[in-house]
Amino acid sequence: MRLIFLGPPGAGKGTQSQMLAGRLGIPQVSTGDILRQAVANKTELGALAKSYMDSGGLVPDEVIVGIVSERIKSVDCSAGYILDGFPRTVRQAEKLDEALRSNGSIIDAVLNIVVDEEQLVSRLSGRRVCSECQRAFHLETNPPRKPDVCDGCGSQLVVRADDESATVRKRLEVYRTQTAPLVSYYERQSLLRNIEGVGEISEISARIDSALSR
Ligand code: AMP
User: Fold this and answer.
1) Which residue among 1, 89, 147, 198 is least enclosed by CB atoms within 10 Å?
2) If you ran DSSP here, which 8-state letter would residue 146 be given?
């Protein structure tokens, strides 16, 4: 299974793709997590990505395409993978198609999580992430067992720098102008499955499973 999660920031792609990856036993490849890790480790990639991320813009296509192309060649991706946060532009999608064609593989489905914009803003403001393992929580809909502490690894939960309100507006605008055109891109390839993204986390997971079994 090679899957892509599409949807605006705050739609729940990270949470759902992580859970689905666990159910299917394949890795979740999150470009946002890869970049945040690079920033935390102060690598060359991190230094380059930081200013784009902090302003709510996108890291240049050629940088991100290079990272993903390498990552999906890893041995743990041989039985499949779930892309979360990539592609984000039509150019990235075209480059991914080229890379897949050259090694004879295809994308099986694109799961598009649909949530209206008002909901997204309120979701992003309550979001907390683990400073170590990146696991996502939400103060109202998915709270940690102990306040500000990750259920998984016990590290401190933090607000992502790019979840501050001005940056959120900018990220939503970037989504509308640069990422939303991918909906029709994948619709034309008959790969798109729309998933209603409002409701309990378990309900949304069930919708994803049923969309995949269709
Ligand atoms: P995310 O965690 O997916 O919301 O990504 C956080 C930030 O990382 C984005 O706002 C971008 O600055 C950057 N980023 C993540 N994935 C991509 C991508 N595919 N292309 C360009 N920038 C990306």
Assistant:
1) 147
2) S
Ligand 1 mean position, distance from CA 109 (Å)? 21
At a CB cut-off of 8 Å and minimum separation 6, what does 105 contact?
2
Mutate which of 53, 65, 124 to test ligand 1's pocket (most atoms within 8 Å of Cβ)?
53
Which pLDDT does position 214 carry in this prediction?
Answer: 80
User: Is the CB of residue 10 below 6 angstroms from any atom belonging to ligand 1?
Assistant: no
Identify the residue whose tokens are 């290079």.
Answer: 66
SS3 156: strand
182 Cβ below 6 A of ligand 1: no
Q: Does ligand 1 come within 6 angstroms of the Cβ of 52?
A: yes
The mean pLDDT values, 10 residues at a time, for the chain of 214 residues are 96 94 97 94 94 93 95 93 98 96 92 92 88 90 94 95 84 96 97 95 97 91
Residue type, 179: T
Which residue carries 């890379």 as its tokens? 99
pLDDT number for residue 90:
98
Partners of 52 in the β-ladder: none
